[in-house]
Each structure stands twice: as structure tokens, then as C-alpha cells.
Design goal:
Layout: H1 37-48, E1 52-53, H2 54-57, H3 63-68, E2 73-76, E3 80-81, E4 91-92, H4 102-112, E5 117-122, H5 133-146, E6 151-155, H6 165-172, E7 177-179, H7 189-192, H8 198-211, E8 216-223, H9 229-241, E9 246-251, H10 268-280, E10 285-288, H11 298-315
Length: 316
């Protein structure tokens, strides 16, 4: 794989062009508008339960495909985030109080959609003492009660302003997969993820496995923000040192002209090369394509993840 033609990491401010223009979107990143009956059914159930999804809030390009198959990523704790990451299209501001009935509504929607695997994520809630950890735990327990056959994946914030007990509360509720995205390489954090700390996020992933060695851990990054290949490979090494099982890599897409610009569109061939490199470093599961997102094909990937662990244990 050729090196990505990206800014010098010693000068990350160069990740922005003066006019914030972005390169032309290639054919491989284009998707069709959602129109299927399955999409409409999923949308109607979510509206009826008054639930928020990251699929809509973050403008995911895969929403048509996923909702057509009855899959949706539930976003709990409101639509307003206390962080202001430059890649994210979720509104920033002062959130409303938690809805105590939300975990039950999520569980009812999971049962009605007959989900075999569900992803539950949230906005950052730095205004809450526990960062929303107990709300995550209540949601996990409600899904277990209402849909006991459904496997559960949580994609949590970093609980940066909480004590270590916040993560422990989530892990104690026994999700099947604990996911926390690093999002980008550490050199771009000041521009892309200014409210977060790279090594804190890495430690969250490591601690999750320390608390419960049986849990699957997962993390993801975007490319096309201004990183170079060596920085991406270093992130892979850092994740493996933290015993992360599953890595996702996808193309960053600029939500609006006000957001961080796309530096370049990484080709499918380069994604395939990154996937091979990641498997070579020991990840159990890797998904690296232009349209890969944390929850894209999460159910199928979880089944492959379990099979990969069994195969590795059998090999030992």
C-alpha cells in the first residue's frame, strides 16, 4: 500500500484547507436513497417508541441498507452531546435530563424488530456524575429481560470525567461486546476529538477486558482525516497491546462544510491492505472498507467474532 498523501503529523493544523473544500466523492462511496418497505417499517417502529438512532443523527450512509433489514443502532440519553468533535454531526449543547422509561422502550423496540444482535450507543454526557453508565446498564438489563435471545453490543463514551467505577457498572451488566472508538490517530486528536484523550480511551478498552476477560472488545477509526499509514499501523499496535479483539476502519465523510474536511478518499484496495495488516497483527475480526461503520453488519460480524475465538482456542 502506498503511503497516504497527508499532512505532516508535526503540523496537524494543516489538516484543514483554507477554503475547507474536499475532493470529489468517488463512485465507491456513493449509496442509494432508502425507499424499501423494510426501511419504512423500522422507521415507524422507532418513531412509535420515540427512540433516537445514531443512524439518523450521525447521517450514516448505510441507513437504507440496515433499516431495510430491520437493523438499527439505538442512541440513548438524548440527542444533544456535551462534546464538540469536528467530525461528528450530532448537536452539541446542554442535554435534557435522562428519560427513566427509555431503557424499557429500547427493549420493546428490540423485541418488536426481532433483533438477533443490537448495538446501543449514546451521546457524551459529561454533565452526569457517572457519564450515563447506570443508564447503559439499565438498558442492557431491560433488553435481557424483554429479548433474552438478543446479543448486545454497547458503544460507549469515554467516561473521561468519571471515576473507574463508571466503566465497571457497564461491564457488570454483561454486554456481549464492549465497543469504544478511538476515532483517529493521536496526532489529530486536538483537531478532530478535542474533548477526548487518546491514551485514556485506550485504557478504557484495556480495563474492560481486565474487568471481564470473557467480553469481546471492539474499537474503530476513520481514515481520510489527515493521518498517515504509519500512524494507522501504530494505532493497531496500541489496540492489540490493549487486547482489543475487533477493529473497524472506515472512510471519514464530511457531514457539513463546517466540519473537518475530507483530506482524501482512501481506495478500496488500500482498505484491503489495511485489513490484511490488522489481521497480521492478531485481531480476531477486522472490517475495513470505505463504508464500514462501528455497527455496520454488527450482528454478522459478532457471529464471526465468536467463531474466530473458538477457532483460536481450539488451535491452542
Amino acid at each position: 500500500m502506498r503511503d497516504l498523501k497527508l499532512p505532516d503529523q508535526r503540523h496537524p493544523e494543516k489538516a484543514h484547507r483554507a477554503d475547507n473544500a474536499q475532493p470529489k466523492k468517488p463512485d465507491w462511496i456513493r449509496v442509494k436513497a432508502p425507499t424499501s418497505e423494510g426501511y419504512k417499517k423500522t422507521r415507524d417502529i422507532l418513531r412509535e417508541k420515540k427512540l433516537v438512532t445514531v443512524c439518523e443523527e450521525a447521517g450514516c450512509p448505510n441507513v437504507g441498507e440496515c433499516w431495510s433489514q430491520g437493523h438499527a443502532t439505538m442512541m440513548i440519553m438524548g440527542e444533544i452531546c456535551t462534546r464538540g468533535c469536528s467530525f461528528c454531526n450530532i448537536a452539541t449543547g446542554r442535554p435534557t435530563s435522562l428519560d427513566t422509561f427509555e431503557p424499557g422502550r429500547v427493549a420493546h423496540a428490540v423485541a418488536e424488530l426481532d433483533l438477533k444482535h443490537v448495538v446501543v450507543t449514546s451521546v457524551d454526557r459529561d454533565d452526569l456524575k457517572d457519564g450515563g453508565a447506570e443508564h447503559f446498564a439499565q438498558t442492557i438489563r431491560a433488553i435481557r429481560h424483554r429479548a433474552p435471545g438478543t446479543t448486545i453490543e454497547v458503544l460507549t463514551p469515554d467516561f473521561l470525567k468519571c471515576g473507574p467505577e463508571a466503566l465497571a457498572v457497564v461491564i457488570a451488566a454483561k454486554p456481549d461486546v464492549f465497543n469504544h472508538n478511538l476515532e483517529t490517530v493521536p496526532g489529530l486528536y486536538p483537531q478532530v476529538r478535542p474533548g477526548a484523550r487518546y491514551f485514556h480511551s485506550l485504557r478504557i478498552l484495556q480495563r474492560a477486558k481486565e474487568i471481564d476477560p470473557s467480553i469481546f472488545t471492539k474499537s474503530g477509526i476513520m481514515v481520510g482525516l489527515g493521518e498517515d499509514r504509519q500512524a494507522v499501523l501504530q494505532v493497531m499496535d496500541d489496540m492489540r497491546a490493549a487486547d482489543v479483539d475487533f477493529l473497524t476502519i472506515g472512510q471519514y465523510l464530511q457531514p457539513t462544510p463546517k466540519h473537518h474536511r475530507v483530506d482524501r478518499f482512501v481506495t478500496p484496495e488500500e482498505f484491503a491492505d489495511l485489513e490484511r495488516a490488522a489481521f497480521g497483527k492478531g485481531f480476531l475480526m477486522v472490517s475495513a472498507t470505505p463504508l464500514t461503520r462501528s455497527s455496520y453488519h454488527a450482528g454478522d460480524d459478532f457471529a464471526r467474532l465468536r467463531s474466530a475465538r473458538l477457532a483460536r482456542l481450539g488451535g491452542n
